[in-house]
Automatic annotation (TrEMBL):
Coiled coil: none annotated. Residues 3-58 form the HTH deoR-type domain. Pfam families: DeoRC, HTH_DeoR. GO terms for molecular function: DNA binding; DNA-binding transcription factor activity. Keywords: DNA-binding, Repressor, Transcription, Transcription regulation. InterPro entries: Carb_Metab_HTH_regulators, DeoR-like_C, DeoR_HTH, NagB/RpiA_transferase-like, Tscrpt_reg_HTH_DeoR_CS, WH-like_DNA-bd_sf, WH_DNA-bd_sf. PROSITE patterns: HTH_DEOR_1 (PS00894), HTH_DEOR_2 (PS51000). It comes from the Bacteria. This is Transcriptional regulator, DeoR family.
């Protein structure tokens, strides 16, 4: 088997299972563990995966600070934001997570009927300063500056009293086996709490976040009501998400 073929099989396993165990891969591909480990070392050097003891994990997405992420507003995120905003109905209460993708939702929210927005992000609240029909409830707490969201016990207690119709969740990574994840332990906890208080949870995922894993799990992908992904992603990559029974919208 050619090296390129072996590496392709390894990447397929990584996407499918969220990890590669060298011993299991060697058995499945009828190769020696030494060969698999050598391939994993080379692939890690090429930036294709992250070596761990006994195998490999997906590369965790980089976490640039909020100001850097806000400076990059792509057409893809705008399309995803518009698709999410179109889901909002008159009189609903929605919860907007922090982040640049949810900022695009805030900018695209309808202006011809009334609804309520809850957020624990002062930057999201500021986006809605001049919105003519949105009532805004801002949750307070300890500010996590990287994502500009309130965290901690005070925020959790306030959120426990809310029952949003839709929670638009921000994630740094989504994987069909490893779940939805983010880079901070406290932020993952509060995202999980908001989802538990909400009737529906929807997340927006750009291609680089798909089939990736960040250090702190929020919840399984199957706990979502739906996922909005950028159009043009291979159906083969989306099939494992559709199999979980969630609604997938391409935008």
């Amino acid at each position: 088997m050619l090296t390129s073929q072996r590496k392709s099989l390894i990447l397929d396993m990584l996407r499918r299972e969220g990890q590669v165990v060298a011993k299991r891969a060697a058995e499945e591909f009828s190769l020696s563990e030494d060969t698999i480990r050598r391939d994993l070392r080379e692939m890690a050097a090429e930036g294709l995966l992250r070596r761990v003891h006994g195998g490999a994990m997906p590369i965790a997405p980089d976490l640039p600070d909020f100001s850097a992420r806000r400076a990059v507003s792509s057409d893809v995120k705008q399309r995803l934001g518009r698709a999410a905003a179109d889901m909002v109905k008159p009189g609903q209460t929605i919860f907007l997570d922090g982040g640049t993708s949810t900022a695009e939702i805030a900018r695209a929210l309808p202006r011809d009927f009334a609804f309520t927005v809850i957020t624990h992000s002062p930057t999201i609240a500021a986006e809605l300063e001049r919105h003519p029909t949105a009532d805004v409830i801002l949750i307070g707490g300890k500010l996590y500056k990287h994502s500009m969201v309130a965290t901690g016990a005070a925020a959790m207690n306030q959120i426990a009293l809310m029952r949003p119709d839709i929670f638009f969740l921000g994630v740094t990574a989504a994987h069909p086996v490893r779940g939805l994840s983010t880079g901070d332990f406290e932020e993952a906890a509060i995202k999980r709490h908001i989802a538990a208080c909400s009737a529906e949870t929807i997340t927006l995922v750009t291609e680089e976040k798909l089939d990736a894993v960040s250090p702190h799990v929020i919840m399984p992908v199957s706990a979502l009501s739906g996922m909005i992904v950028q159009e043009g992603i291979d159906e083969e990559r989306l099939a494992s998400y559709r199999a979980l029974g969630i609604a997938l919208l391409e935008a």
